[in-house]
Design goal:
Oligomer: single chain
CATH superfamily of the largest domain: Alpha carbonic anhydrase
Radius of gyration: 24 Å
Number of helices: 6
Order of helices and strands: HHHHEEEEEEEEEEEHEEEEEHE
Helix content: 10-25%
Distance between the termini: 77 Å
Shape: globular
CATH architecture of the largest domain: Roll
Number of domains: 3
CATH class of the largest domain: Alpha Beta
């Protein structure tokens, strides 16, 4: 009763002050009895705002959908990513055309943006404007790319050491992600530049100058890819995302893979059910730009 009386007095004073300042006429008082009919705010009521998530413990993937209503699709969605892919898939149904330029690790048009950041979940690189690809008649602009160790998508039930996600968005706000699986092999020049400029700690970022990456590095010599419609692989797990996963992996040296694992090990979401979706294969359409030769 003391709490109700205190709240009653507080609300009464607040409403009276608002009415006095605005000269709005009659003021409706909220009585202690009326407080009983209001929905209480409790510590257990879920927040409608995004909340912290992780890849383990009580904030791991199995709990994402329970952390916030904003993340409900992580639990209830029927078109989620990643999925297991089959190498026996045949047929076509998707064509696309890449027009990728190089990028510096410096945002030329916005000095307030981070070039390369360890955001606590992954290493992410924000790219210069100008790189894009066309899919199903729509143009998607490359925004950033980031890494998962081990891979999130599987091929015939097996994971690769790493996966790179190139995140695109079209003018309508729809997402498309191009994915390259990474196997152990020869050293990758672009990965070398990224590793040499890793932020020292989680949450840190770097603004880099005069360091350039050739974005073609994620395009294998054979450009066949799997296509399906899925979701973002991190909260809020938004759906209607177009996915292209190259059938042939790119390479990184063991030392390079070890360097990424030291930063972001086990940041992969578990495989999700395919449900009634289909996976198709396709390939590049049209000519590459000269810097992709």
């Amino acid at each position: 009763m003391k709490i109700k009386t205190f709240l009653w007095k507080t609300l009464t004073v607040t409403l009276l002050l608002n009415s006095s300042c605005q000269n709005s006429g009659k003021t409706e008082l909220v009585t202690p009895e009326k407080l009983d009919s209001l929905t209480p705010i409790t510590a257990n009521k879920p927040s409608a705002r995004p909340v912290h998530w992780s890849y383990n413990n009580e904030e791991g993937p199995e709990r994402w959908g329970e952390l916030s209503p904003v993340y409900a699709l992580c639990k209830d969605g029927k078109n989620q990513s990643p999925i297991n892919l089959s190498s026996e898939l045949n047929g076509t149904g998707a064509v696309w055309e890449f027009d990728y330029a190089s990028t510096s690790l410096r945002i030329a048009h916005n000095e307030n943006m981070d070039d390369i950041v360890d955001n606590g979940h992954t290493i992410q690189v924000t790219v210069d404007e100008g790189s894009k690809f066309t899919f199903a008649g729509k143009v998607y602009h490359l925004k950033q790319f980031h890494f998962h160790c081990p891979s999130e998508h599987q091929l015939d039930g097996k994971s690769y050491p790493m996966e790179v996600h190139f995140v695109h968005q079209n003018d309508s706000g729809k997402f498309a992600v191009v994915s390259a699986l990474v196997k152990e092999g020869k050293e990758n020049d672009n990965f070398k530049k990224i590793i040499e400029n890793f932020p020292a700690n989680k949450g840190e970022s770097k603004h880099l100058h005069d360091i350039h990456l050739a974005l073609k590095f994620h395009l294998p010599e054979k450009n066949e890819a799997y296509h399906y419609t899925g979701s973002l692989t991190t909260p809020p797990c938004s759906e209607h995302v177009e996915w292209l996963i190259f059938r042939h992996p790119i390479e990184a040296s063991k030392a390079q893979l070890d360097a990424f694992y030291a930063k972001i090990a086990n940041n992969n979401r578990p495989i999700q059910a395919l449900n009634d979706r289909s996976v198709k294969t396709g390939g590049i359409s049209g000519k590459r730009t000269s810097n992709l030769q």
